[in-house]
């Protein structure tokens, strides 16, 4: 049997997100390890592109969340309307059933007024009642009617209490939803304010680093030009090219030189050259140390920024999970209450519970 991996939509989205992160990381490494970018300064265009990309991503997330919220609200309104229609239809059916029962009761035939009903019966067991023996029949019927009225009032009162309790639960649910929505709005506003502040600080820091880098590069170029001018000056006015006074010697080319009296370099000049070399070496070491420190500081800033963004995303994910858990618990509670309500209404509709007073009026005749 071959093993086949089924790729779901969630797996595809996760793979796309991972691929996007890998691509961004590769682009970031390419910018960092690029010699031209590292020597000439920061890539403000790339940084601004990253800021714009993050802003557009957050806008897309906000639009998607708003669309989901609007769809959830429409679904809730539709369910409410359907629930109301179902309740109205159920009440109409109960009213029609009650009217049908009342009509059946009214259409029942009245007791026979024949003074000798026993003559038409075949046997004694078929006798229903004896006229003139039930002296409290009228009183018993009146009490039974009173008892039925009391039962009807109790059922109406119980239904009214159930409706009031349902309205109270609905008001509590609406208040809870409003509180949750207000809290979510406050959290969203705080998160957006913090994000904007962090973005402004990052842009200001990038601009400051760019200005500092340009100033350092300008100072380095000026120093290099000054060193080149000093080198040219030394090459022109150096003691190595200056001849001593004395009798010149004419060479084959017609130049007059005093090779035997060439002055050369003195010990002071050699020491000055050595000091200049040491100074240039120390300056180069300081410049390299400053560059390393600046690179380490930039790396620390990038790490702090990445850590802050990770913490922010983690907090946002935690808040989303908490809101989802609260919503699920609230939905479960409302579903349980609705189920209990349906069971209670069905029990009240199908079962007519008798009380002890109902049986006190039986077996009261003189028979």
TrEMBL record:
Subcellular location: Cytoplasm, Cytoskeleton, Flagellum axoneme
InterPro entries: RIB43A (IPR008805)
Keywords of the record: Cell projection, Cilium, Coiled coil, Cytoplasm, Cytoskeleton, Flagellum
Bias (Basic and acidic residues): 213-231, 290-301
Predominant cellular place of this UniProt entry's protein: cytoplasm
Family to which this protein belongs: Belongs to the RIB43A family.
Protein name: RIB43A-domain-containing protein
Organism name: Caulochytrium protostelioides
Lineage, top ranks: Eukaryota, Fungi, Fungi incertae sedis, Chytridiomycota, Chytridiomycota incertae sedis
């Amino acid at each position: 049997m071959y093993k086949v991996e089924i790729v779901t939509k969630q797996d595809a989205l996760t793979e796309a997100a991972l691929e996007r992160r890998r691509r961004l990381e590769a682009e970031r490494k390419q910018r960092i390890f690029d010699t031209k970018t590292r020597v000439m300064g920061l890539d403000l265009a790339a940084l601004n592109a990253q800021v714009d990309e993050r802003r557009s991503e957050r806008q897309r997330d906000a639009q998607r969340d708003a669309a989901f919220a609007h769809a959830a609200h429409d679904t809730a309104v539709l369910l409410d309307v359907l629930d109301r229609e179902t309740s109205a239809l159920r009440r109409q059916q109960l009213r029609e059933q009650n009217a049908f029962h009342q009509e059946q009761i009214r259409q029942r035939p009245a007791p026979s007024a024949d003074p000798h009903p026993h003559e038409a019966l075949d046997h004694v067991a078929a006798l229903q009642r004896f006229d003139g023996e039930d002296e409290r029949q009228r009183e018993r019927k009146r009490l039974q009617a009173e008892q039925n009225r009391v039962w009807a009032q109790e059922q109406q009162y119980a239904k009214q209490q159930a409706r009031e309790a349902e309205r109270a639960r609905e008001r509590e649910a609406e208040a809870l939803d409003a509180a949750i929505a207000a809290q979510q709005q406050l959290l969203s506003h705080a998160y957006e304010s913090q994000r904007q502040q962090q973005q402004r600080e990052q842009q200001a820091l990038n601009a400051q680093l760019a200005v500092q880098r340009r100033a350092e590069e300008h100072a380095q170029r000026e120093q290099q030009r000054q060193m080149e001018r000093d080198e040219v000056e030394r090459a022109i006015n150096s003691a190595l090219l200056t001849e001593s006074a004395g009798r010149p010697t004419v060479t084959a080319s017609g130049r007059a030189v005093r090779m035997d009296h060439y002055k050369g370099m003195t010990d002071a000049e050699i020491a000055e050259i050595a000091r200049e070399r040491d100074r240039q070496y120390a300056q180069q070491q300081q410049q390299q140390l400053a560059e390393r420190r600046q690179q380490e500081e930039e790396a620390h800033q990038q790490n702090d920024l990445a850590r802050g963004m990770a913490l922010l995303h983690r907090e946002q994910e935690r808040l989303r999970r908490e809101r989802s858990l609260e919503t699920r618990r609230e939905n479960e509670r409302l579903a349980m209450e609705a189920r209990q309500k349906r069971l209670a209404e069905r029990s009240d509709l199908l079962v007519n519970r008798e009380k002890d007073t109902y049986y006190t009026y039986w077996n009261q005749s003189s028979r």
